[in-house]
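Type III restriction enzyme, res subunit structure dump, as promised
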Amino acid sequence: MAKKNEFALDFAFFNYLRQFYEQNKGTIRRNYRSLSRKFLDFNDSSNPDSFLRVPQFEALEMYIFLKEYLDNRKVYQIFDDWYHKQNGFKKRDDFGLGKGEQMVLFGIDHKQYKQVFARMKKYAEEFAQEYPNYIFSLTMGTGKTILMATCIFYEFLLANKFPKDKKYCHNALVFAPDKTVLQSLKEIQTFDRSKVVPPEYLNWLNTHLKIHFLEDTGTTLNTIDRSKFNIIISNTQKIILKRQHKEKSEVEKLFSTPSYSHDSVYDQNADLYGFDQPEDEGELIENQRFLKLTRLEQLGIYVDEAHHSFGNALAKDMGLKKAKTSLRLTINEISKSLEESGTSVIGCYNYTGTPYAGKEIFPEVVYAYGLKAAIDNQYLKEATVNGYSNTKSIEFLRIVIKDFWKKYGENRREGLLPKLAIFGSKIEEIQNELKPAVEQILQELNITNDKILVNVGDSKLTTNDDIREFNRLDSPNSEKQFVLLVNKGREGWNCRSLFGVALYRKPRSKIFVLQATMRCLRAIGNIQEKANVYLSNENKTILEDELEQNFRLNIDDLQSKSENQRYKVKLNPPPVKVKVNKKKKLHMLKEKQITDEIDFEFDKVDLDRYRLVQTVQEGLIKSNSMNRNKEYDLTNERDTRQFSHLTLVAEIARYLNYSCIEIEKILRNSKQSFNEILYYVNKYNELLYDWIIPRLFNEMYDIESYDKIEEQEINLVKEPEQGYYEMSANPNLVVDVNDDYFSNWLDKSFHLDTYCFDSQPEKNFFKDIIASDKIEKIYFTGMLTHGQSEFYIQYIDPESNTVRSYYPDFLIKKSDGKWLIIEVKGDNKIEDPIVQAKEKAAKETASASEMNYSIIAGSEVMKGNSTLVLDNR
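structure tokens r here:
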């Protein structure tokens, strides 16, 4: 039976869901509301001005996909529709993602489908979920809190524009994990919203948004009943009604509020005696918060499982393991109370660090971005794990501190000193063993004890000044570098300048080893740094097991080294400047005087496209010409808006931004009577927007276009502020001015001292062209992006219809003085709509500057045909 269910436990539906979205993005987006598309375009991670990272933006894409395209359906319903290719999944292809994200034939059979569907449905029904429940899994350091805030802002913008739509949240309740500090969630309150909200909606959001932060147990919830756009940040203990779980003792019964059997005389008059009142002020406050929540409409619940909830604790919170005190039961209690109050929970959106709980994948995961991907894509530091055997405590600390000081010392990153966290299992261990040993070792290395900071939660060892120092470790003013801690690995502690973690003794909880290890992986600076983890061999074995259970990784995966190396790329003087012609287009509306009556020529309109026609065929097979289809015009059955004289004038005036009085005059003086126009519009609403308004526009305005060409001198490279640009590249794809191969052609190229190519075809193209006697100069420009070069081409993205910047690969000056702009592109990308949009814009720009633009396929370069671009140009 275990083998039979193994497929269901390990089935990663979120991979297939993402694959469907990627393949059908254009069709899916056409079903979105315009505001949703605008919100996505503003945050698109491919835009150099956008703030969100790739995993944050991809998760936002899936969030809006579930909301707009799948209409907030539950995950088991989405899976059922996906398998049966219905309700939006008709275009699903029969393949999916296999191991290593390779495309494979999709092999789920009906038995496997039944296993997965049964597990998903059981999961939802067993925990009485009347609301959709989604899990977004993004590993620590990829920005779950910012993503959560962005999703809430999106909900409020849509809820304001479409207040009657039941799928948008009018209010948001944000839960931190049980028994954890809420400091990390304060970012929702302090975050600069302009980074993720389009500017035209920012003032409205800042004006109407109300944030309630329940930081301590004495804080009441002061929301206005039935109000909108509230964000309540709390945890379950500060919200849920008190419930008595254990029987009271005889003494407690004596002094507590009495209870009486149902229908007794005392029970019937309980309200007179106040028997149902809370027993203490604490219970009264908790009841107040809970009741306030039930008076808010269309509530969305956002659960930040944060960076430290793994294993059994996460499984309980996500509902995989039954527990009376679990977060899931708390949310269900809120949902029931809201239903009784006439409102509802729109959905529960969980943000976790992993999609795994031991051998299982959470069935309701809709997006996942793992630990290894975050390290490989430089969202986290790289890690080196050091294990030690047969060492005493002071020996271990001496080795660790010497190694840390040798590698990092006092070299600041972003102005911050590097820190080493040393974890003890008990306060006594810190006080009696670790702190004296660290002081002794620092003295041996001529390092002052002022570098030590102790934070153990005991006022005898940790003063208020120490806590203040701890809270400002990530500030340039902090001089602390050796931090001694107990249990701070799991409390949402974020310190980007933490470069090392040391854990010698086995902790009480095995998961603490993983939690402590991940504390030092947060990224800092523009270049990927490397952190060091120092463990006893016993703790190293524990880390291996926990990585497998929670991330399906091993230590080798965690510390796998990237092929890329760091390079400091400097500008070679003198700076290269190129003269280009910038073409500016100006379109002006010129108002015309309407002297003649307007003829709308309704007889020329193809009205068939607006008719609702029913076709009836007798029988399944059209056997002969006598058995013809019968057609019935049901246009009168269409749901149309009925305009009056007044509302028609107002609608046209709104579209054309014109005087209502003038619009009425034009309509009354038209060849067709006002009533005839009204007849056509009320019968075919679309006719107003497809025919009447465009015709009026053409009669009322002329569009005059002006082209202006300005000659500008642009810098191929902007002067870097710190004297160089930091790049990460594969050494096999890097060339520099000191390379002997290029010594004879240095005068032809190298406006930068180092060129970091993206692919072998790019490198080969450069080597082929620089050796040609047909060229005078060749510059590699594709390695520079936003803010580093003025040599870029603006184009309109065909998917989002927004203006983007494109940086071509090469700029070549031929011996005859003509300039070429060349793009080296993979064969499979040449027909891509975005590549074609770039090509169209580049050709227009090049033509204005009397240059030529062309794309060469990577396969042609590898065949040795690079110089073909120099011919006939």
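The chain is about 35% helix and 20% strand.
lmk if u need the other ones
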